[in-house]
Amino acid sequence: MTGTLVLAGTPIGDTADAPPRLAQELAGADVVAAEDTRRLRRLTQALGVRPGGRIVSYFEGNEAARTPELVEELAGGARVLLVTDAGMPSVSDPGYRLVAAAVERGVRVTAVPGPSAVLTALALSGLPVDRFCFEGFLPRKAGERLGRLREAAGERRTLVYFEAPHRLDATLGAMAEVFGPQRRAAVCRELTKTYEEVRRGPLAELAEWAAEGVRGEITVVVEGAPEPGPQELGPAELVRRVRIREEAGERRKEAIAAVASEAGLPKREVFDAVVDAKNAEKAGNAGNAEKAGNAGNAGKAGKAKNAE
Question: pTM (2 decimals)?
Answer without folding.
Answer: 0.73
